[in-house]
Amino acid sequence: MSDDETDEGLLALLRNALGRGPAKAHSHDTIPVLKDAEFICDNSVDVAIDYRDTKVAAATIWSAMQKRGYSTKTWSMHDLHPKTKNRETVNFIFTMDLLNYCFWSESISEPAFEVEYRGQRWTGYWGLVAALQRALDEGISITDPHFWQDESECNDAVLEHVFRSDSGTNIPLLEGRIACLREAGAVMYNRFDCDFLNCVAEAQGSAVVLVNLITDYFPSFRDEAQFEGSTVHFYKRAQILVADLWACFEGEDYGQFFDIDKLTMFADYRVPQMLHSLGCLKYSPPLDYHIRQLKELASGHSWEIQLRGCSIWCVELIRREIILKNPDARVNAILIDFFLYDTIKEHEVTALDLVPHHRTRSIWY
Known about the structure:
Radius of gyration: 20 Å
Mean pLDDT: 91
Order of helices and strands: HHEHHHEEHHHHHHEEHHEHHH
Shape: globular
Number of helices: 16
Strand order of the largest sheet: 1-6
Distance between the termini: 39 Å
Number of strands: 6
Structural class: mainly alpha
């Protein structure tokens, strides 16, 4: 390399160190998730969409959503989600989705990560939300980026206390979650003046721009993989962060986005499980056996990418079918995802023959 040439790798490291993210190589007007999901689906050999059952599922899902009055209001009806609508709520949601990943236990025989709060015991995602609420009740400013910057006050021992379990099984990937908090704190300090609302304001009412800002500047939200020689994007936590703001504020104030319908479903391990139970997704025999045997699936494995990509495209087809049959329906991929997630959590208790979810240890979901 000559003295006149630019070392792009060094520039990338410096940008990340300064909380400035990578150079913007894409347009902020679009996110590539849906296009990449279609590409994955078209090239998938171990996961397939059953188009007939997907149409049947669309009718079933829409009917159930109507009966339950499912809408953005449903988000705040959950016991643990914030009920106030202010700046602190935005910080709570950012913290919640910064750490919203990977809650499954190593063995079905071992107790799940569990948090006792307000007389109830909460597991999984709800265990995380309960831990955050419990910490705030204890006077710990766990959702304040200024607090994350003070490693004398916000040390590892304090964070271990915040995320302590009441079942004897610790929250998975605790060290990774602490690292995510530290990294996000540095980005907030260097780029957004320790206030996520500055990031929201920079998006100027665009959900798509906000997703791109989040994935540009916060590396732990940059949910990408390699598939068939191409980089594919999922952006699960970045999209759900924007969606949670939209749902919490019911499309107003800090949750007002003119292009919210451009977001996709949030590719995790629960919604694919639900789509499979509805008959929408079919697995190859080797993949089906692997999942049923509760074997771990490495992050970035072709099977995992196919599961996530086909799930995104399947929910998009469900959305299109609902709109086709009900042109006045006010529904998007976000609400369908929320509904499917809530439903699979309900099925956990009652459906003994439910096929297990795939098991991937990852900070992406």
